[in-house]
Amino acid sequence: MLPTRREFLKTTVGACAAAGVNVSAQSPSTRSARSGRGRTPDDLAALSMVEAGELLRTRKISPVELTNACLARIDRLNPALNAFITVMREQALADAKAAETEITRGRQRGPLHGIPIALKDLFDTAGVKTTAASAIFADRIPSRDAEVVRRLKLAGAVLIGKTNMHEFAYGDTSAISHFGPVRNPWDRERISGGSSGGSAASVSARLCYGALGSDTGGSIRQPSAYCGIVGLKPTYGLVSTTGVVPLSWSLDHIGPMCRTVADAAMLLQPIAGYDASDTNSIDSAPPDYSRALHQNVSSFRIGIPRSVFYEGLDPEIERAMNEALQVMRRLTSTTRDVELPAYQTLPVVGAEAYAFHAQYVTKTPELYQPATRQRIEGGARITAPAYIEGKRELDRLRRAVAGVFANVDLLVTPTSPILPQTVDDAIDRPVVPPPGGVAPTLRNTQPFDIFGLPTISVPCGFSSTGLPIGLQISGASSSD
């Protein structure tokens, strides 16, 4: 039902190379799936996005086969995982058949053509419910697609469904949802992380080949770490947020969640780029991200910001990080300790969240989950001067952090300082930080939303109980 540990390691192409893992061995079923011979639905679902795309391009498999393989796993596993709110079965099959016809006729739109992708349920989808996992929007059907959804459709992706999440993206567990908690595929008693927990669980359990998530304090990277996948938060403004239910306009990021680094590059390519309707959008043409995977890392200079990021770690996360850093020292030019600009959690998120929700929370507060309502109502107490000062500090920090990269190319930290809690604990004792505060699991991720830097979480081994551990790599802003 789930990938073995060896298969899990094989999904992290870039991370495995950095860790010196031998990934050359393949099982007979994996070899047959990659060649298009003797394939079963589970074999097809085990393919990476890049592998599936190549087999589609050479017509050794069809989009309908891939879509049916994902739908079969959704039917079998989603009742236990609760990763999807809406499965777009009929539309997905219709789109898969249309893609098959186009590919057969020689009209190939690109690497994503015919590949099933899932969407966190705060991306507007024309004619399909977009709920943000809340009773407030339980019956909301947008009339237009979000910009990233429009771009995925243009690229020929098959949109297979809308994934469960932490209500309105305002939390770190995905256990607080109108549609019930998302469960971690590696241990169903544990949370999948949040707020993009359904996207992480669906990719990890091979219910789709990739998914989109959103990240305001770590909501792509933390669930990716907890579910053993790759999660990329791009530079702020690189990917449009038009048509995405907001948490905080000043910190919201959109990015891919996949099983391999190469897949993340492949999914980022069509959604990145300027959007005139998004006032925060970067006006520049994105590079070829897949080409960057072939860079020689031997000249890279690694920075290690030990203050805060390496403090109070779970011992098993600390062990995994120490082992990873030893390997990086052998593979790269230099590693050195660095200091990031002094920062603090800002009142920006709380104020902007309240601004969006004021019309709903004042009329029908009972429709919110209690923990979500408490956080939103806390934003009403943030004063205008506090918000303005917070915005000024946000701008200052985004400028100041560029100086860190004068002597290093990348920053390496643990993704989360602690392992995932149980679903029962997350429901019975939800952590509700004060306005502008951050949950302990997002301590290492939130700063990079504040800085606006591109950051990726990649798998970094397992705990003794088999829970995945994530390693976070951050770079300079792509707009610098």
Question: Could you walk me through the main structural features you see in this protein, from its secondary elements to its overall organization?
Answer:
There is one protein chain. By secondary structure, the protein is an alpha/beta fold. Helices cover 37% and strands 14% of the residues. It has a single domain, classed as Alpha-Beta Complex (Amidase signature (AS) enzymes), CATH 3.90.1300. The strands form two sheets. An eleven-stranded mixed β-sheet has the order 1-3-2-6-8-7-12-13-11-9-10, sandwiched between helices. The protein has a two-stranded antiparallel sheet with strand order 4-5. The protein is globular and about 60 Å long.
Give short descriptive properties of this protein.
alpha/beta; eleven-stranded mixed beta sheet
